[in-house]
Amino acid sequence: MSTLPRTVIAIDGPAASGKSSTSQWVAERLGFLHVDSGSLYRALTAALLRTGRPPDRWTSGSMVAEGARIALRPEQTSFTALVDGRPAEEEIRGSAVTEHVSQVARVPEVRAWVNARVREAAVEHDVVVDGRDMGTAVFPDASLKIFLVADPWERARRRLTQRLGRRPTDDEIAGETDLIVQRDAKDATQTVQAKDAVLLDTTYLTQAEQVERIVALARAVSHRPGVT
Length: 228
Ligand code: C5P
Known about the structure:
The protein is of the alpha/beta class. It has two domains: about 1-30 and about 130-220, P-loop containing nucleotide triphosphate hydrolases (Rossmann fold, 3-Layer(aba) Sandwich); about 35-125, P-loop containing nucleotide triphosphate hydrolases (Rossmann fold), CATH 3.40.50. Helices cover about 50% and strands about 15% of the residues. It is built from ten helices and eight strands. It has helices at about 20-30, 35-50, 60-65, 90, 95-105, 110-120, 135-140, 150-165, 170-185, 205-220, and strands at about 10, 35, 70-75, 80-85, 85, 125-130, 145-150, 200. The strands form two sheets. A five-stranded parallel beta sheet has the order 2-6-1-7-8. β4 and β5 (about 85) form a beta hairpin. α2 (about 35-50) crosses α5 and α8 packs across α9. The radius of gyration is 17 Å and the shape is globular. The two termini are about 20 Å apart. The mean pLDDT is about 95. Bound molecules: cytidine-5'-monophosphate.
């Protein structure tokens, strides 16, 4: 195991703010690995749903026990969350998991478990980590912290365009905006902007522009003496 100090870029923000895709792209540009902390909360929720036990009977003990079925596997440019030894991307992004994940993520023992997995991933790799509290609870000493925000309507529009592969109607966007605002409320306590984070409002930026700005900031901090 390497003892070299690793570089951590922490990208936080609310649901559908583009954290994961932006983080993945930034990681590829810098030759880092991307860690999506939300994928761990989602994978654990999928494992709990697979037990068939009703969600109102999930206890903190059962949540932590099911954590043994989840692993983070390093690939070329990112870590993949495995459930029972296999990737489960479609399942963990599905509506059943999305509906119950905030309930799981609210449990302190689960948060401690996810945070430990994410820190382990950063021991051997330079990483771009994304989530809600990476720059505060998990990596308070990250080299660079970004907090991404965007107008809820714009977040809904982007999410639907990606999901449907076409231009969404205004009614569709309005419905998705409601869901996003509800999830923001459910996740409010765990979504924390670090005092030293750079706030980036992406409402009027393209994804390529967001990536350029973060890569430029990462290069600037890496040239600052004393910063690893
Ligand atoms: O980022 P994503 O929307 O995939 O995250 C799924 C859920 O995991 C969020 O709605 C939130 O409840 C939880 N989460 C969290 N803290 C993180 C990352 C995700 O509470 N660092």
